[in-house]
Prior knowledge:
By secondary structure, chain A is of the alpha+beta class. Helix content of chain A is about 30%, strand content about 25%. Chains A and B meet through α2, α8, α9, β15 and α11 of A and α2, α8, α9, β15 and α11 of B.
Amino acid sequence: MPVNYATPAPEALHPVAGVRLGVTEAGIRKADRRDLTLVELAPGSRVAGVFTRNRFCAAPVLLCRQHLETGEIRALVVNTGIANAGTGEEGLQGARRTCAAVARLMDIRAEQVLPFSTGVIMEPLPVDRIEAGLPRCLTALAADGWHAAAHAIMTTDTVAKAASRRIEAGGRTVSVTGIAKGAGMIKPNMATMLGFVATDALVNPLLLKRLVREVADESFNCVTVDGDTSTNDSFVLVATGKSGAAFDNESSPGWEGFRDAVVGVARELAQAIVRDGEGATKFIEVAVEGGRTKEECKAVGYAVAHSPLVKTAFFASDPNLGRILGAIGNAGLGDLDVARVRLWLGSGGEEILVAEKGGRSPAYREADGARVMKPAEIRVRIDLGRGSARGQVWTCDFSYDYVKINADYRS
Amino acid sequence: MPVNYATPAPEALHPVAGVRLGVTEAGIRKADRRDLTLVELAPGSRVAGVFTRNRFCAAPVLLCRQHLETGEIRALVVNTGIANAGTGEEGLQGARRTCAAVARLMDIRAEQVLPFSTGVIMEPLPVDRIEAGLPRCLTALAADGWHAAAHAIMTTDTVAKAASRRIEAGGRTVSVTGIAKGAGMIKPNMATMLGFVATDALVNPLLLKRLVREVADESFNCVTVDGDTSTNDSFVLVATGKSGAAFDNESSPGWEGFRDAVVGVARELAQAIVRDGEGATKFIEVAVEGGRTKEECKAVGYAVAHSPLVKTAFFASDPNLGRILGAIGNAGLGDLDVARVRLWLGSGGEEILVAEKGGRSPAYREADGARVMKPAEIRVRIDLGRGSARGQVWTCDFSYDYVKINADYRS
């Protein structure tokens, strides 16, 4: 059960002019489930992406990086069930064959296809089944295929994740719609977080490249711990230009509103991944302020969000706040003056100062801590007291079910 | 239930001439349990220690560092139940009062006492109860008090941890005996790993200082993940000199054998902590070779040993080896050539090559992987294929009980 999240209704996902999506049951790993998705992009679409930094990155990630260099992307193909990671040279060939199959069907070049895979690592990709399924995806292509695609890219996700916004920019209506998958938090389970966001605005290619990084930094990179990027993590941003709205640079009229819409969609997707985190019963924001740099704020946020002791305490609704102090002390800030650190815990409209001057706040009462720990959404606020930078991380708690899901998976 | 570990019998713990230990029930946090330990060291004893790098380090750690600078240590005092961490200025005063109380009783200076605390963070230390209990510890002081002390420093440990060796050096019999506590692995629960090892050899002070670091590096620093050192972690090495054997430098006769004995005792204690890890059902060695430096080998070992996905797979006896590859790829070795990495899995006398050339080894059969994953002791061997350095890390699996212990703790 995700924490305060439900998939938007199909009609809430605005079509993006120039994007059509089609899904099918290709039988990649399990029968009777939609597991193959084809996304067709109109000619002239611009695409930018950010990918995992894991050295054992998956074959499709290697191809995505190559194909983004070479030219105009016209299709995305996504399979679930098999990650095609840890598959060596054979895996690369499988990803290439997949792109070639899409290219043949759509009469484009293989380099114009971006492949994505998610699922079990170290198992071979059943390319024959993908080839057999692709014609059905092609037949199914539709502008309102977002909802179906959000379902077809799931692995252990318990809900499909999608978000959509519509804004006015330069007298035009611009749509931004996205889908994502991923249900892990400490490490995305099945080793994959995938995010796809498209808009029908026209965006200068260099600007789009910068935007995808900034958006990732403010959304998906706030939910996965940096060191734990998986073998297949991918986030792709598509701009078809079909709405007529155009952004050439950051001074273009309407840019701020457009950027906010893209960030908003990506954040909604990123937070949905946490809300659907494996075994999650709580959604936790760790907001860090008073740092020298944004990076150190995020490092502290990650240290707290990543600590199994902190996460199990949240699961138990136990205000064991010393564990949070311990995590802050472990964030690698060698010159941190702990006497200046302040720590609040909040939920609903309430916020309680729990620690200051290196220890428990004199006014703090455990009953207050216990009360704010109860709700399903909790905010940890940390003031490092050494600067004016900020950063935040979203995470979930750590429950019996996390172990169950990850110990039982594959069996 | 610890994995293949039982506390040695009292008579297996050799007394160390010049060291006496006494314990009592001081009622620090719970009734009817021995929770206060006093260790008396003969005049002339030399002491060196290594301590947590956590910025929120506990008050006793701050005092230990100060007191080790100033002079000849004559006593250690250890309480369980309360960690005296995250307690600010009041905590420091509590630790100082504890040292002063020991000093009064033993007619020494407060600076000659090293204090240690373990237990809940952010709770005040009940110094009155410690002061009231100390005279009983003094009365109980005995050379054969090691077994009782090993029990009295426990927190969530399910077994007391102790180790002892006796060797010949320079015609003298030298004893090395130690105790430790800690039952966490990802992070020591109750925020503490404590280790105390004593010998009746005489060791040059500078040599002892170097030795304690080297020994920690080959024992306790192989079981806790570096970034996760807790607020109270302490490891202290005492050399009383009472056996008559003396080591002035690394060329002194018998040094190698003596060093091996100290490392051996510390390793046994460190491994006992993992074997008694919270919820542990398996003991796992991650041995990394073929690295450019020992540090990068350990970084890879930690990345594997720290991955919740790897740990839950071990709990499930599931040869989900892609998770290990994923963890290796996340170890921060930006220029790692994954095509040169080889991965073996072993147990008993058997070892199986499971991955090479960036993917699954052609000869690997899942039935073989499942077989070597079954036993309670498993060895992961990784060849990075880029040098001749080595390093290893010991860890345990990640079970339902880990969550249970950490979610229920304090309640």
